[in-house]
Amino acid sequence: MTTLPDRPKTALLVIDVQNGVVAQAHERDTVVARIRTLVDRARDEGVPVIWVQHSGEQLAQGSDAWHYVPELTRQESEPLVAKTFGDSFEGTDLEGVLARAGVGRLVVTGAQTDACIRSTIHGAFTRGYDVTLVGDAHTTEDLTSWGAPPPEAVIAHTNLYWQEQTAPGRTAAVVEAAEVDLAAG
Asked: What is the number of other CB atoms lying within 10 angstroms of the CB of residue 97?
């Protein structure tokens, strides 16, 4: 279990499901629908939902590209973490948000698999969190023209290697959205 003392709770992390990030994402509508279902479940079960929103050169604050997709609506009471780096912990208040909520386990969804998702799951794991990646609720765009594998291969590879992660006192897991246990922890 988590190496963070007195942090028994789980939170659902929704990373960068913004118009400009997922516009050309692999299976965009299906992934967004799965995330929405998880958000609804988390709310029903009293599990904190934490929203992460990237800004930068191509995601100018306030622009249409910067806004979350219309299918996902954050409630005012749910924390919004603004970030400018891939790892959602770097230069943000995410750690403080999670500490105040008593969270030691993260269930991770969002985009992009090969950037912010990977950075954040590794960042969380090295900081002592248990990390469950929702295997069918993260996505990326097609970057094959820059030498990357096709998006479905990037997603499959990330799921494959994350389920094999180990470290003292922490757990890493990959589960499908329909099988996520938000109460585990």
From this structure: 16
Q: Which two tokens stand for residue 43?
A: 């709310």
Per-residue pLDDT tens digits for 159-173 = 999 999 999 999 999
* Sign of the dihedral defined by the CA atoms of residues 60, 63, 67, 69, in that order: negative
Place of tokens 């799951």: 121
Residue 36 has pLDDT above 60, yes or no: yes
Whether 104 contacts 94, CB under 8 Å: no
Q: CB 61: neighbour CB atoms within 10 A?
A: 10
pTM higher than the cut 0.90: yes
What are all long-range contacts of 35-39, with beta carbons under 8 Å and residues at least 24 apart?
35/72, 35/109, 35/110, 35/137, 35/177, 36/71, 36/72, 37/177, 38/12, 38/107, 38/109, 38/134, 38/137, 38/177, 38/180, 38/182, 39/12, 39/14, 39/72
Query: Per residue in 110-124, pLDDT tens?
Result: 999 999 999 999 999
